[in-house]
Amino acid sequence: MNKDSKAKLTVTINKKILENAKKVAEEKHLPLSGAIENFLEFFVEPSVYCFKCGRKFTSKEAEVCTKCGWMICPHCKVCGCSLGEETLRAVFYMRRTFEDLLIGRVK
Question: SS in 3 state form for the chain?
């Protein structure tokens, strides 16, 4: 992605959310436009870290395991099949919360 080419984005959101987001962005010394851009970049091309080797990869470059339904790390070839049930459950609900956030189901 060319970081030099920028486009103006106009959106309408809840006023209180915008006020709070501006406060948090200021506390983190991050421009609000940067937070929005990071979110949209992830929304378009999600990337994750392998729980085994720790390397980052995009969902586009990973195959999905037919047994467990998880992405197979393109680096170390590990999927969710190697995890215990309790860990799988914890990761599933963390991911579900994150996905809800991405599509607006978390209030």
Answer: CCCCCCCCCCCCCCHHHHHHHHHHHHHCCCCHHHHHHHHHHHHHCCEEECCCCCCEEEHHHCEECCCCCCEECCCCCCCHHHCCHHHHHHHHHHHHHHHHHHHCCCC
Rounded to a whole number of angstroms, the CA Rg of the chain reads 17
Residue 1 lies in a domain: no
pLDDT band at 107 (very low <50, low <70, confident <90, very high): very low
What backbone phi and psi angles, to 5 degrees, belong to 56? Answer: -85, 140
The count of structural domains within the chain is 2
